[in-house]
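In this supplementary section we document a worked example of the pipeline. Step one takes a protein sequence of length 431 as its only input; no multiple sequence alignment statistics are reported here. Step two produces a three-dimensional model, which step three serialises into structure tokens for compact storage. The input and output of this example are shown verbatim.
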Amino acid sequence: MSLKFGSQPVLVVSSAEFAKEISKTHDITFANRSVLISLKKIMYDFKGLLGTPYGVQWRKLRSIFVHELLSSARVKSYNAIMEEEMNLLVGKIKQDCLSSRPVNLTDAFTLLSNDLICRAAFRKKYSETRHGKQFLEGMKKAAGLVFNLTLGEFIPCLGWINWLTGFNAAIDMYVEKVDEILEAVIEEHLTNKGADESKDNFVDILLGIHQGNTPGISIDRTTVKAVISDVLGAGTKTSSTSLEWVMTELIRHPTVMKKLQDEIREIMEGKQHITSHDLQKMQYLKAVIKETFRFHPPVAMYPRAAREYVNVMGYDISPKTEVLINVWAIGRDPSLWQEPEIFMPERFLNSSVDFRGFDFQLIPFGAGRRICPGIEFAAMSLEHTLANLMYKFDWALPDGANGEDLDVTEKHGTTISRKNPLVVFPTKSYF
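The serialised model returned by step three reads:
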């Protein structure tokens, strides 16, 4: 579907076949991101991995991300962190269960996702600090600002309206606050440098590159802040949103929940701690997660931008055309999925379709060069969290409500999350 947002040509891609052309066949041609003015301000002039135009600098930044934070070996090394955070989460929920208190899973998942990312990348939590709380609060505001499409964004001569409405002031206020937070994080690491020679965390690695300790690559201080912002912002919201939706759908479909609990409890045989080895045996768990990604992709549309003229499947696409790959629509395409509006994990039990960017009917993390580098970390955290919550607790809605009564209204922003928090009761604890 070809559109015009003001003076900006936009192409909306809603088929798996065309998505494959964009993300694989012509991947290099569409290897840039969109350039929304508000997004450019929030993302440090596109100096981080998520916004940097395709080229030498982008390849260097991605290499840093993958090798120093998100490689398979690195992700496996986070197992101890994962188990510790799961124990903390389970312990808190158990106390709520014993006291018959409801649990706000929306808040719990946000904190969990942020803590996991912070411990993996920075070797410490920030959610309990003043700066960490401010960052999480600011992130919520930014999600709405970025997708609050304004006239000034697409009709430059009307840009003054953004000043009049206060939109630009809100963006500037957010950027100033986040910059203050990230500066504090950097100063903390610079001050503590040398205090612990065994430290090996992402911020120190970035600062080392900034200070010229790595031959062949250099980044300025702004790029360091942009990359840290990418790690904290992108990882926290997408992971917590996916956890929100999978628990929502399980509560709405008690038969699916029971089947998942039976699988997990049979495999565990009464053992207390779920390991990565145990997770590999849980095929229905993996099917539930895939179905959640199909039904509720954390990001509804992945933006690309054409770097040059290209003809795709007979259509002429001009340079700088914005391309929105409509992952949500592809996941509900009746030509690809049987009964697409029904949450049915069984469709994946005897299917080789996966979400790692090779099967274009299921691309919740994108595909091609711009695929999310945190895909393995996200999958691991989802599996660990869901398995623990299903294994160790039974769940119900407040006031005896039925699953079909659960509100599933969406809140649109950088991710498609629930409009209202997911509040539930853990009705029975098994440990």
